[in-house]
């Protein structure tokens, strides 16, 4: 019988495929005295050989589907498995101390792990994690426990996982991964954002998927409404295939809008841009008729690697995005790291409140060398397109002035070195902290544009951690408090002849779009897959009419009243 | 016995990728091969050994080989150091 489960719809579309559980097993090692030394040595050799064979496949696949550079880390793991200084002592312990192979492996690797952890070089400390990773693989074989690597998937599957970290995702291949289900997370968690970027249907926050879904079971993921169907009957599969076809048909309708500008029913033009994470996402933006990049999250350039990207590497990435957009506006957000986004090679102290701590622009101003490298790279790339630079998490005007001063210093340096830099780069800020929204009139005199980051603006205004499911009811985009802040920002920018965009999740929301249009938002930036739906919606809305409703909407008392009001308007 | 000194010029020092290339390359030789840095000498055929030296940028290391193919081993090590961009000698 079909079993149903529901979670948070995180990425549109419907997928039907076999479940693939991404497990993280516990490996407990006991010390045992053995009598058959040769037998134990054979077990060790065979576990090492199986691990080597697996890693060779992973290395090859990573090189084919991602890059040689990402594959190189597995090359190092392979060398550890045949390292004479590791295998020698393990063999020695088994032979002379008569202990079991797992225990000998654990003890010997522990020694190396503590040796690396004791080093005062952050990069070397991090190598302890590599040894743990390799050890986990061999131990799993010795203990007869299965572990998988996402890069080994070569069948059409739906991934079932507790959660997917950003570094898990570098190993995923969109060709085979038809959908995601994760037990934790919300619409704005990284796995959800990634699913939308890759246009893979996904449901997150399913809570019991790992407990209830077995490997190989057929699963339907309905990313449109958050439904998960386990072991569906043929009739259900048929029904969802029809739903899938209907969705595809609607997408085809939108495709007609692909090459059109975004114009409201009363002839007012606005701009729809896309949020991207890597240069690879440009193809999806072009396919979906994006008029701009409203947010390029540069932090992905810094993730899934073991040291900072060099200036040249960054220039290459930024230039390829700018070239890909062929002169269309491209807003690049400077490094937004800290909070829930960590870098393995940047040892930041653990904070009690990471979302309120040293992150984004605060961290960049604290580490000016790192920041200057990024600014130089952006300036060098600026000649390849229409670059706009945006600083994240600005709380005070002083922070903006300091960041802009660094940018101008680097610009002058480059020009003195004879390097060409564009003279028409707009410099703006993300508005995601209530203090900045409230002070928007003052900011508007100095910045070239605002982009409202609603995910953080909501969490900071409502004082509700967006990763904490127990307070997710406070994640209220339509709370009049949020809408009033949005209006303050838009009005302030227009008074100074500047523009305001929105790059949070809200910009692509059907209920939010009529309100934002009425408030006069200039640019809507969203996941590429939402662009055509939004363009179609705006083409049916009158901006002047919506503007007449905004005062009444902003005077409503809560989020639900706003939703009801807008829903009633659109069904009229 | 053959040996040669190198100055590490890569700004990240002897990090995992070049160390892997070096270890992988010299493991094919029969000679005993070592790398010495700051008075500590380890087996160059051991990635864990090499990494445990934590060799930073600007340091001088000595690679020594002892055995029937010692000269070829040193030559190959120098080649890898150069192609991996960790030392220009």
Count of DSSP E strands of chain A?
17
Q: What is the correct CATH architecture of chain B?
A: 2-Layer Sandwich
Q: What is the first-to-last residue Cα distance of chain A?
A: 41 Å
Strand order in the largest sheet of chain A: 1-8-7-3-4-5-6-2
Explain how this protein is built.
The complex is a heterodimer of chains A (572) and B (89). With 572 residues, chain A is α/β, with parallel strands linked by helices. Chain A has three domains: 3-22 and 153-250, Glucose Oxidase, domain 1 (3-Layer(bba) Sandwich); 37-143, PtsI, HPr-binding domain (Enzyme I, Chain A, domain 2); 268-542, Alpha-Beta Barrel (TIM Barrel), CATH 3.20.20.60. Helices cover 48% and strands 15% of the residues of chain A. Chain A contains 22 helices and 17 strands. Chain A has an eight-stranded mixed beta sheet with strand order 1-8-7-3-4-5-6-2. Chain A has an eight-stranded parallel beta barrel with strand order 10-11-12-13-14-15-16-17, surrounded by four helices. In chain A, helix 1 crosses helix 5 (122-143), helix 11 packs parallel to helix 13 (368-381) and helix 13 packs across helix 14 (397-416). Chain A is globular. The mean pLDDT of chain A is 90. With 89 residues, chain B is an alpha+beta fold. Chain B has one domain: HPr-like (Histidine-containing Protein, Chain: A). In chain B, 35% of the residues lie in helices and 26% in strands. Chain B has helices at 16-26, 47-52, 70-83, and strands at residues 2-7, 32-37, 40-43, 60-66. In chain B, helix 1 (16-26) runs antiparallel to helix 3. The two termini of chain B are 20 Å apart. The mean pLDDT of chain B is 90. The A-B interface holds A 69, 72-73, 75-76, 79-80, 82-86, 112, 115-116, 119, 121, 123-124, 127, 130-131, 306-307 and B 12-13, 15-17, 19-20, 23-24, 27, 42-43, 45-49, 51-52, 54, 56.
List the main descriptive attributes of the protein structure presented here.
heterodimer; A: alpha/beta; Glucose Oxidase, domain 1; TIM Barrel; 3 domains; 8-stranded parallel beta barrel; 22 helices; B: alpha+beta; 4-stranded antiparallel β-sheet; 4 strands; 35% helix; globular
